[in-house]
Amino acid sequence: MSIVGDDRAVALIDALVTETGSARNTDLLRALIESAVQLGRAGADRLDLKLARSALAEMTDAFRMFAPFKDVRKVTIFGSARTAPEDALYDRTRALARRFAEAGWMVVTGAGPGIMAAGNEGAGREMAIGINIRLPFEAQPNAWIADDEKLVEMKYFFTRKLMLMKESSGFLCLPGGFGTLDECFEVLTLLQTGKAEPAPVVLVEPPGERFWEGWQRFVTEQVYSRRLADPLDAALYRITDDVDAAVGEVLGFYGNYHSRRFVGKTMVIRLRHAPDEEACAELSGEFSDITTAKGIWRTGPFAVERASKDHLGLERVAMEFDRHHQGRLRQLIDALNALAAPPDAPSDVLA
After folding, report:
1. pLDDT tens readout for residues 54-97
2. What is the DSSP string of 313-349?
3. Which of 23, 160, 287, 318 has its CA 20 to 30 A from that of 45?
4. CATH architecture of 70-253
5. For residue 95, with 0-12 CB atoms within 10 Å meaning exposed, 13-18 middle and 19 or more buried, which class applies?
6. What pTM, to 2 d.p., does this model score?
7. What CA–CA distance (Å, rounded) separates 326 from 196?
8. Residue ranges per domain, the chain?
9. Mapping DSSP to helix (H, G, I), strand (E, B) and coil, where does residue 75 land?
């Protein structure tokens, strides 16, 4: 039974979906339209309707912009809009972005001034993506991404943060204020709760300073010590003041590990080189705290993966992950990367 609960309305919605010419995911298209109908029936006021409409429109624009680049790895750079071009941190960010672009990664920023401009500049026009926020100040995108087809502008921070995080395979956090700290904690929260796919996060220190070390002291003394978060969640991020180390942390995460997928209760980890049975047994013992007695085993593609042709050329291991200890999962991914010799160059695509 449709949530609309009205046969005539259902028929009209079905006709509208058919009229769009969409052949895929028609069930979800129907649900989107039904949700809009339900908003009207629930008596949502004009402000609520405007918010819902604007948020969906912004996401639509962003999805359309990202679509041509869905198979290219991306790194998002967070940092202060107030960092001046003559600041050493600006130059460091520009160098980081250039290194990723040279490795075939696109660089995503919030499209504003400061660190965001440095990221777009370092990446170059072809490899830069910008997601700007309209504010009473700092409203214009920086010169390195302005008027580019890979720029979208948004009214809401929540839709902007979604798109800054959804499409990226790695994250660099440079020093910044409330907004940067909010973005840093948001991505860590998504990783900690398993709401985002595993990804590397690097907190990049300013030259000769200890911005993130101060942050780490606070988290250790006031959060981990009170058991407000699992101390093992510290495995979800790295702190460094070295450009080479920051780039290596992100690219190295995908040296062997590729992606994962759940098939029922089983987590399938796709790899370029899967460990042999002896190594799987050792990993099963080392990570017995986050899996069942079945341990970690080699496997071929599952039936649902074959049906959708989901990365069939990759090797696999599988386990029944408890879905709670994400820091330990990161440690397992590090162990899987360490077991296999890295390829000559990290892959720049998701295929």
Report:
1. 999 999 999 999 999 999 999 999 999 999 999 999 999 999 99
2. TSEEEEE---SS-HHHHHHHHHHHHHHSPPPSS--SB
3. 160
4. 3-Layer(aba) Sandwich (3.40)
5. middle
6. 0.91
7. 10
8. 7-14+24-54, 70-253, 257-339
9. strand
